[in-house]
Amino acid sequence: xxxxxxxxxxxxxxxxxxxxxxxxxxxxxxxxxxxxxxxxxxxxxxxxxxxxxxxxxxxxxxxxxxxxxxxxxxxxxxxxxxxxxxxxxxxxxxxxxxxxxxxxxxxxxxxxxxxxxxxxxxxxxxxxxxxxxxxxxxxxxxxx
Length: 144
Hints:
Elements: E1 12-17, E2 20-25, H1 34-50, H2 66-74, H3 77-88, E3 95-99, H4 105-117, E4 122-125, E5 130-134, E6 137-138
Parallel strand pairs: 3-4
Antiparallel strand pairs: 1-2, 1-3, 4-5, 5-6
């Protein structure tokens, strides 16, 4: 792709809280609350593992070992934005995310689990459609 001058568009997700829009890029830990966001993501990973979710590492396009692919999934922009939402909101506040690319299959599955485990409604608008995650289900009925 580089030979043809094609650039990859990085994943970017936004969340609005208290009238302020926060933007997250995949793997970007420059946010002032990055330490707290990382803690939330660790808790999410533990809870997701306990319910039996196996990471969909086929969604990672990098040529790396499986463990690094699992870590890369945890750094997708929508997960960073959702973690920030979990950090800053209380139930029943809805978390609304806008993403510039399509949500990957693993993030879709994890967001369903997050909605059940943390009892938050989460809306993710990706480039194709709206996904409303409630109690472990998505409005798209897994067709996206």
